[in-house]
Fold:
Amino acid sequence: MANEHGITSFLPRLGEYCKSTSGMTILFAIIVATAAAVHSGGYIILNTVVTGGMWALVGMGLALIFGVMNISSFVHGEFFMIGSLVAYYVYSPFVDIILDNPNTFFAAVMPLVAMFAALIMGGIAGVLTEHLAFRPMRRRSKKDWVMNSFVLTLGLSILLINCHQVFFGAEFRGIVKYWNYPSIAMMGTYVSFDRLMVFFIAMFMILAFWLLMSRTRIGRAIRAVSQSEPGAMMVGVDINGIQTLTLALSCGMAALAGAALLFMYPAYPTVGMGPLYNSWFIVIIAGMGNVTGAAVGGFMVALLQVLTTTYIGEGWDYTVPVVFLMILMIFKPSGLFGTAVRGVLDE
Amino acid sequence: MSKTHTREPIQGDTVEQIENDTSTSILEHVGMNKAGFMALIVLAILPLIPPFNQEYLVRWMIVGLFMAAQTVAFNFTNGYISIVNFGFAAFVGLGAYTSGILSTKLGISPWLTIFMGAIPPALVGFLTGILTLRLRGIYAAIMAWFVGLALMGLATKMIWLTEGPMGLNCPQLLDSTSNVPYFYVILVMFLVVYIVLNKIVQSHAGLAFIAIGQNMDAARTSGINPTFYRVLNFTVSCTFAGWLGGFYAHYYGILMPDLLHTTKTVEVLVIGYLGGRFTLWGGAVVAIPFVFVMELVRSSTSDMPGVNLIFYGLFLIVIMIYYPGGLAHFYENFKASTHASFLGRLFNRKAKQEEINT
Structure:
């Protein structure tokens, strides 16, 4: 009975959803991706899915910071940079051993250790940022908070980029691949094992994050703070703790993305610029502060980028998104998936 | 250079209080006090006095004045309607490229193209404004950043028009090889930007800007259309940015897409916040000393590129946490705290007069 009820109500609900803006956009994106894949080959879908998962992680972190702390972070890309740097220094001392003996347990696990180290270091960096920058500022004044915190994160970003430049130099620190396994034939192209793993790690993180947000007490507290800070305080949520945790979580996810994509984006001072740009693009098209929307938005942005490089050419990837955003701003300024966090006109 | 009585808008200021500050003297009409005017005179003869008449120092002063003028235009948006124009450098660069392209490809005199160069930034600023300024302030900041990067992408890719990363060679504004005439050109441009924007701030539109920047709901209740005034402000700021870009094109003589990059915006932004974003004079006062200090730091740490930018970041963080009002706020506090003391009597005529009155 329950099962039947589930099926009978699921299909009409799916139909209803497909008629909404978000549903129509997702359908449209899937159709475009399929058409492009038929026209130019399956690598379009594969590239979209692989990088999209990681952009979703970075974008979700940014949306979470915006929703919970009301900070428009400009420093988010620098946690991506920290992640790639940490992963490089954890992994590269063993790179020869690992590439020579790809079938040992050590070689299989070491990349995961590097990524985990990046996740932890990103989290620590987030906690430090909260304690050294955001909390002193929040304690002193909450006037003009949105713009002031934005400029504060800008200062942090400049500081971190140039500390990297001064202490580590401007060289590219990258690796060729994490796992020295043969590529796998799929949809007419070859996919390296790394890319496949990156996709699974992203999916695992998104799932874990969703479970954390929807099934645990901590997740409920985070959602409560993002809905109303005074309300959450009244029912006994430790606001400071939740804000620190949120920042640690978001920065950790960005750092994990940096570590996982080390073979595509080597560590250098301004490596965070691209991910930052992407994550802001994601957050605006998905709707500010909408975390679930950001997860879907990550894939859409990745699709748009792959299509741009395939059909328009390299170097246009800063111009095309603006056209998209202009159209979005005219018709649906609150984002494709809407935002339930704070009104569009509020400061 | 010039200090105005237009002080930091403090919550609780009534319209009368702000209007009462407008006294009748000509100097104050253009937004200066006596100290500011004296500083301006000193600055105007500085390139002729021996230690400062060396070419590289004059060059630094030109850069300083160029930054000062940009900061005034930037703080006009940033301080008065609380919107960070994060693509400011791109609007400067758009003006520079327009002026450079018109003068090289069509052979129009640079003196005319400088003014024509202000039109595209005004249009782009207006379009960005009407799309984003009806939303939360952060949308405008991020969109301006995106538009700026898009313009930089266009400048890099449209090689047939802009020569791309090879650099576009523009004709010089003047025939002279000396920097001194350029110094006076940028001084005049700075004064025009400063005085015009100051007049706008003192007008009724300026009151509306301050009202919007302070409390949007209260402003809307008193019949101000926030979107209209925000778009007006943003467009004016972008127009002046483009105009100043024209000077850049015909002073340096070469334009690269890097000119539109976010780091250039950051330089302006740091000076603006250091000087105090709620005033126009704050950034202008800070700009020249800041450029001198930064040039010295850069030349003494040339083996470690990036050290000077660490200072940018640190300055921003410390200012934002501990003193969001910047130098202008410090000056106001200083004036208030030394009101009755000896120093105050020495520097503050108002205090002296009050003493006489009592």
